[in-house]
Amino acid sequence: MKYDIKDIKLSQEGLNRIEWAYQDMPVLKSIFNEFNSNKPLKGLKIGACLHVTSETANLMRVLKVGGADVYLCASNPLSTQDDVAASLVKDFKIPVFAKKGIDDKGYYKHIKSVLANEPDMTMDDGADLLTMLHKDFSSISNRVIGGTEETTTGVIRLKSMEKNRVLKYPVVAVNDSYTKFMFDNRYGTGQSTIDGILRATNRLLAGSTFVVAGYGWCGRGLAFKAKGMGANVIVTEVDPIKALEALMDGFRVMKMDDACREADFIVTLTGDLNAVDQRHFEKMKDSCIIANSGHFDVEINKKALEKLTVKKRTIRPFLVEHTLKNGKKVYLLAEGRLVNLASAEGHPACVMDMSFSNQALSAKYIKENHKKLEKRVYKLPDEIDVDIAKRKLKSMGVKYDKLTKEQEEYLRSWEEGT
Questions:
Q1: 321: part of which helix (H) or strand (E)?
Q2: What is the pLDDT of residues 151-208, one digit of tens each?
Q3: What does CATH list as the number for 8-180+348-395?
Q4: 186-342 belongs to which homologous superfamily?
Q5: What is the DSSP string of 219-285?
Q6: For the segment 12-71, what is each residue's pLDDT rounded down to a tens digit?
Q7: How many other C-beta atoms lie within 10 A of the C-beta of residue 115?
Q8: Which pTM was predicted?
């Protein structure tokens, strides 16, 4: 079995983490048992490009027990947990191509290593695997029956490909499922981003001015978590509706040009490039801490920061001090990459339980329905989304009301009025 990981000797530590996460993933556990009995993915080769974490490891186990041959690489150069990668190779015989801190050349080499196995299905977090398949491995695209996409940034890329008629197979936008984006993006990103910032800086948030760039589901989650820890939160937005929502939620709303002058912390979650640009670095107060929790490291203009920097040094792991030409200092966390995965451990397992249940059931859905799917981006059917929610509530011991026949009939009727 071919693989490329940091150190196979780390496997026991990784196994411990995988087992610990699995305890808090009851929905995925129920799918594991069903897949183990029914083998719905039998004969399928799945190429996955995801954050190599303990939670992802449990998804890989479910796919494999469902009958699939699985090949995994990382979807970010800093998001791999090396001990988990080692355990997947040694304990579960799953080929992994991932090392934390690898350079860009090695990162793309790992993606190519997965594609070299000619997968029948792709599984992405950011669409890098799918994009490379379309560009450099187009000869195998005819064998691919479908793909899945985990995150907002990847879905944006895929919808652009669909619009330009270059998408070569159907893809399920897992990110668009309610049990994914309402929980993973809001609760998961909110908590894990704070976790990454605190581990990198050990700074107190209470009383600080905390700027959140972007008020999508991830931005909402982070803004509320930062507020809950006592920070004074400012939101920057380009969408007037989201800006209004942030204001009505109790946050100050400003342009980044103004917010950066007050900020102790700035975190980007926009999905777009240069949310923090050269003019912002020049206006920032001294000792501002900047981080990114969007998928790619383009949201903070690192080239502009380097251009303004006269001195640079690493203060703590994942914290680099930039002394600017104007004498002020700016602190960049995790190289501008996903701070929640680079300097922390990503989302808690109970949140990824639903996200990865969506992934597993999407794979099954594609296997069973690919012949009637067009080459476009799909939302996972609502009944599967609801099924995941029901499983989660059952695992938590929560009971909820159901409509009576009379209530159902009333909602279907149009004759009754005031």
A1: strand 319-324
A2: 999 999 999 999 999 999 999 999 999 999 888 999 999 999 999 999 999 999 999 9
A3: 3.40.50.1480
A4: NAD(P)-binding Rossmann-like Domain (3.40.50.720)
A5: HHHHHHHHHHTT-EEEEE-S-HHHHHHHHHTT-EE--HHHHHHH-SEEEE-SSSS-SB-HHHHHHPP
A6: 999 999 999 999 999 999 999 999 999 999 999 999 999 999 999 999 999 999 999 999
A7: 21
A8: 0.92
